[in-house]
Structures are given as C-alpha cells and as structure tokens.
Amino acid sequence: LIKLRDVVFLKSCKNLIELTLNENPLSLLGSYREFVIFQLPQLETLDDTPITYEERAASSERFGRGNNSID
Q1: pTM reported for the whole predicted model
Q2: How far is CA 43 from CA 19, 29, 46, 71, in A?
Q3: How far apart are CA 70 and CA 62, in angstroms?
C-alpha cells in the first residue's frame, strides 16, 4: 500500500480480520487508523491491537455520511 486510498482495494477481502500496517509508511499518517477501520469494517485487529467499539464509532463519525476526506 502506497497511499491511504489504496486501503479501499482490500475491501474485497471479506475474510481479512487482522491487518498490520505499523511497518508501512501509511502508519505515519495521523488519520490512517480511523480510515482503515471505516473502510474495512470486518477487521477485528489492526496493528496487533483489537479495534474497539469507540474506534468504530469515531471512524464512522469522521468518514461516514459522505465525509470521505482523509486529509
């Protein structure tokens, strides 16, 4: 993955429940975790850390309802 938007290509991986990006340059972007959680709702763990209900709610608030800006 090179750009944060590239995460969208993983949407078709319905069985993907764990993803590690902490060695990827994307992890240096401040909004990457929320964006990944929003785009890949099937994930249970991101960067070896379980995804919480609060994180899911925050990602939906930030990126849901047509607000897809990742800047």
Answers
A1: 0.86
A2: 7, 19, 7, 22
A3: 9
Residue 71 has pLDDT above 60, yes or no: no
CA distance 67 to 51: 21
Q: Which of 44, 50, 4, 54 is CA-nearest to residue 24?
A: 4
CB of 12 closer than 8 Å to CB of 18: no
* Residue 55 near residue 35 (C-beta atoms within 8 A): no
Tens of pLDDT, residue by residue over 10-66, are 999 999 999 999 889 988 888 899 999 999 999 999 999 999 999 999 999 999 876
